[in-house]
Specification:
Length: about 160
């Protein structure tokens, strides 16, 4: 029997009855139409499905939907003030930090977790925070440059 769950998604209360074996990634994309988390591998290797649960970046393909009952989930959509590009996203645009863009939502979520804890990370801390996010296009340098530039700007 399916279990009804209630949780907060991008600041909105949601009530859903996911299949018992449905992952959070499947529920977000297929049931709720939230398309920024991507399915690159479906087994925890690529990070393209990264979302935040209670402020922690996690791979949503490894979490069952029922596990977010009572928790707060944030996707890239929830990190865009008023649906507009955030300052971090603008820095990615300015530094040509993506090509196909498949990895980008997960990368932005992972970086956002880092910046929440450490607003001015150094390059090694940025690399460490992104160690679980694969990008096949950029070679990572423009991603790191965008984060360095963003983290170094005056608040
Ligand atoms: S789809 Fe979740 S880590 Fe690759
Ligand atoms: S921009 Fe294509 S995988 Fe990162």
């Amino acid at each position: 029997m399916n279990q009804r769950i209630e949780f907060v998604l991008n600041s909105e209360k949601r009530s859903v009855e996911p299949r018992a074996n449905q992952t959070l990634l499947e529920m977000l994309r297929d049931t709720l139409g939230v398309k920024s988390p991507k399915c690159g591998c479906d087994r925890g290797d690529c990070g393209s499905c990264t979302v935040m649960i209670d402020g922690r970046a996690v791979r949503s393909c490894l979490v069952l939907a029922v596990e977010v009952d009572g928790h707060e989930v944030k996707t890239l959509e929830g990190l865009m003030p008023g649906g507009k590009f955030s300052a971090l996203q603008k820095s990615f645009l300015a530094h040509n930090s993506f090509q196909c863009g498949f990895c980008t939502p997960g990368v932005i979520v992972a970086v956002s977790e880092l910046l929440e804890k450490n607003p001015h990370p150094d390059r090694n801390e940025i690399k460490e925070a992104l160690s679980g996010n694969l990008c096949r296009c950029t070679g990572y340098t423009p991603i790191i440059e965008a984060v360095v530039a963003h983290a170094g700007r005056e608040e």
